[in-house]
Amino acid sequence: MKTLYLFRTAPNPRKVICLMKAKGLTVDAVHDITVKNYEISEGQHLTEAFTSVNPLQLLPVLVLEDGTVLNDSQAVCEYLDRVYGERSIMGNDIVHRAKVCAVRRTAEFEIMYNFMLAFQHGHPSKAHRVDQVSQFAPKSIQRAVNALPYFEKILTGHEYLVNDQLSFADIVLYLGLDFGKVMGVDPRDANTVGSNIVNFYERMHAEYSIKACTEGNPI
Ligand SMILES: N[C@@H](CCC(=O)N[C@@H](CS)C(=O)NCC(=O)O)C(=O)O
Predict the structure, then answer these.
(1) Is the pTM of this model over 0.85?
(2) What domain range includes position 169?
């Protein structure tokens, strides 16, 4: 059996859940994966037991049958994408994969990462983890907001970011926008994010919200 360590409401573990859903699968129903849920807000990932799995004390983690530890969301998703299901969410051919990679990384660094930085520097629950500089929070939010027009333009006349089909780039942008909500940037406010992004967010949210990914699945 493989073991997948998750915290189901944080953006990086959610990537894994969304990727599997996009492939028509649910992480809880894969025959050779056991899911272990951790509650970050209760510090369950800071225990000795989890630290021995991932010394960085971060989720998600996938441990393979031979003991190989994949302690990064991209690595976990790359692995799951190739091993399970039929359609690749990372891209169908070399050029498609490269395009998905480029847009995914831009969504990650410009949108999701900046909102996460804002959270880490601005939220009291992160004070024990981060040497917080509170001024960094609004500046990081602004950096994310500044990058939104780039995606608004790509989505003009398109439902998805790359080749008019759902890919991992869409999942990462959606999760970044959804986390922006926590940081006070409303992904349904066309004046802030742009109308193409609002439509994109609504479509993705219907399929990949925490609730939509949880319904019918045990937690
Ligand atoms: N590079 C890692 C980052 C993972 C990460 O930052 N995970 C967050 C949840 S989104 C976490 O576990 N945070 C725990 C903490 O900050 O104490 C990945 O993408 O997997």
Answers:
(1) yes
(2) 94-209
Question: Which atom of ligand 1 lies closest to the CA of 14?
Answer: 10
Is-contact 38 50, C-beta < 8 A? yes
Listed residues 51, 66, 87: the one ending a domain:
87
CA 123 to centroid of ligand 1, rounded, Å:
15
Q: Is the shortest distance between the CB of 176 and ligand 1 below 6 Å?
A: no
Query: Rounded CA gap, 13 and 41, in Å?
Result: 14
**Cα 11 to averaged position of ligand 1 atoms, centre (Å):** 8
Can you tell me the distance from the alpha carbon of 206 to that of 68, in angstroms, rounded to the nearest whole number?
35
Q: pLDDT by residue (tens digit) across 58-99?
A: 999 999 999 999 999 999 999 999 999 989 999 999 999 999
User: At 46, which CATH number?
Assistant: 3.40.30.10
Q: Which atom of ligand 1 is nearest to the CA of 120?
A: 16
